[in-house]
């Protein structure tokens, strides 16, 4: 048998017509059926490409020059877009981003979940798809003896030293990063050096309530002791009255994980507040809170619509975080049970229920896959289950427990179309038909997409 050799060689210059785009945002062009993946190339474009990596069945290229440009190509407004890995789609019009995300969901459902012929609605986008993020976590380094802050250059741990702004994050976050870096620099606080495993300040995290304008600063350090701590905190809080909480998180490990296990409040409250849809939330440093509050409201409204509550239902909100969806649902349900693995998030959820005088929501710490069978054994029979798992999707034992509980309706909120499609297939085999899918753009300028899915128990299976 003859071995098929790729039709291109490394470093060769080729001209390609791009037909498609991957879910990571790279253009796909083919030479005699052999696909080349090229970042920043758009479907419909013709371009000169340098081949940089040749594998047996596909290769990678670098865009050298566009010969025919797509009408969807735009100038990326960020000055470090091509260095930073944070955004992948700033060179694409927003309309095309929304369309691409819907297609991505459709393809995953078809290929992985074998789900076709159901309505997948057009992606709900933002009116102004910039400055939407309420949280930023930025690495700290040093250059010529001065502290610098900036995201890492793509596929590296080198800080981009000319990054001044991040235009997808709230302006207040940018200002706070500059302020904290400048004060810490003046007080001689050192940056953590990953290679030598020395130094102190690893990251600065800023979280802000877009509705309340309250801000939390989190200093992530290698060791507990911070020199000139009092002056540092004093200067931050006296200069910036919007700061309501300063927290230190200690991460002594040699790791890529940003937050360590231990946190302590240096000044103010352990949380800040924000509001979505008239519900007030307390958010602490380690709790998950959706990063785009404008779109979160649209996402939760859709989840509520799909849950179709009348006030008589018992509802489970699995992977509930600080109880955001639970509290949205509680207003229209008889009782809501939330489960979440992070203890701090559950104490925030309980606090949030009190804060909003919601008495029909109860929260439990634990792994959803363990708590669900226990609830079932206790005789809990939910009418509706809402799930909002992390990117890896639901554990199979969780899905099975959900199927065994036989709720009439399931609302699945997902930030990963591939694991969503895998889980929908399992639910389909368990008697749950996918009725509708609504993609919501929670992360403009990036390839990420969120979906809300409505599933119903098949009539036959209800007997
Ligand atoms: C995508 S977030 C959703 C949070 C919340 N529903 C919201 O909208 O803010 C997923 C949550 O699942 C939690 N989590 C991860 N694994 C879990 C597990 N095995 N059991 C329960 N919760 C888990 C995470 O801590 C996180 O808060």
UniProtKB/TrEMBL annotation:
The active site is at 415 (nucleophile), 415. Transmembrane segments: none annotated. One of its GO terms (molecular function) is rRNA (uridine-C5-)-methyltransferase activity. The keyword Zinc-finger does not apply. GO terms for biological process: rRNA base methylation. It holds the Pfam family tRNA_U5-meth_tr. It comes from the Bacteria. Signal peptide: none annotated. PROSITE patterns: SAM_MT_RNA_M5U (PS51687), TRAM (PS50926), TRMA_1 (PS01230), TRMA_2 (PS01231). This is 23S rRNA (Uracil(1939)-C(5))-methyltransferase RlmD.
């Amino acid at each position: 048998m003859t071995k098929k050799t790729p039709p291109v060689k490394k470093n060769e210059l080729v001209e390609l017509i791009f037909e498609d785009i991957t879910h990571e945002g790279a253009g796909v062009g083919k030479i005699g059926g052999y696909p080349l993946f090229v970042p920043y190339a758009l479907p419909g474009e013709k371009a000169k490409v340098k081949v940089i990596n040749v594998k047996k069945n596909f290769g990678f290229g670098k865009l050298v020059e566009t010969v025919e440009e797509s009408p969807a190509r735009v100038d990326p407004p960020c000055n470090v877009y091509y260095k930073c890995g944070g955004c992948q789609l700033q060179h694409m019009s927003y309309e095309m981003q929304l369309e691409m995300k819907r297609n991505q969901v459709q393809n995953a459902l078809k290929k992985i979940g074998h789900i076709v012929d159901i309505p997948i609605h057009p992606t709900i986008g933002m009116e102004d798809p910039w400055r939407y993020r309420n949280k930023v976590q930025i690495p700290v380094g040093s250059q010529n003896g001065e502290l610098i802050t900036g995201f890492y250059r793509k596929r590296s741990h080198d800080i981009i030293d000319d990054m001044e702004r991040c235009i997808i994050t709230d302006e207040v976050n940018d200002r706070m990063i500059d302020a904290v870096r400048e004060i810490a620099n003046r007080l001689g606080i050192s940056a953590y050096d990953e290679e030598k495993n020395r130094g102190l300040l690893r990251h600065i995290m800023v979280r802000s309530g877009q509705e309340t304008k309250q801000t939390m600063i989190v200093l992530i350090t290698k060791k507990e002791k911070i020199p000139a701590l009092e002056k540092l905190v004093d200067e931050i809080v006296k200069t910036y009255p919007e700061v309501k909480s300063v927290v230190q998180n200690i991460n002594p490990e040699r790791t890529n994980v940003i937050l360590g296990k231990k946190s302590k409040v240096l000044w103010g409250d352990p949380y800040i507040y924000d509001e979505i849809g008239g519900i007030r939330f307390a958010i602490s440093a380690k709790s998950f809170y959706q990063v785009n509050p404008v779109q979160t409201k649209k996402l939760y409204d859709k989840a509520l619509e799909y849950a179709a509550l009348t006030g008589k239902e018992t509802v489970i909100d699995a992977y509930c975080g600080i109880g955001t969806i639970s509290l949205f649902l509680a207003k229209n349900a008889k009782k809501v049970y939330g489960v979440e693995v992070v203890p701090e998030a559950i104490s925030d959820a309980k606090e949030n229920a009190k804060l909003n005088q919601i008495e029909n929501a109860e929260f439990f710490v634990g792994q959803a896959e363990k708590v669900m069978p226990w609830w079932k054994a206790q005789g809990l029979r939910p009418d509706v289950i809402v799930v909002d798992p992390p990117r890896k999707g639901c554990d199979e034992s969780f899905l099975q427990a959900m199927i065994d509980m036989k709720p009439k309706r399931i609302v699945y909120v997902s930030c990963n179309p591939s694991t969503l499609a895998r889980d929908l297939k399992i639910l389909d085999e368990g008697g749950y038909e996918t009725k509708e899918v609504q993609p919501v753009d929670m992360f403009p300028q990036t390839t990420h997409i969120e979906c809300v899915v409505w599933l119903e128990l098949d009539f036959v299976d209800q007997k």
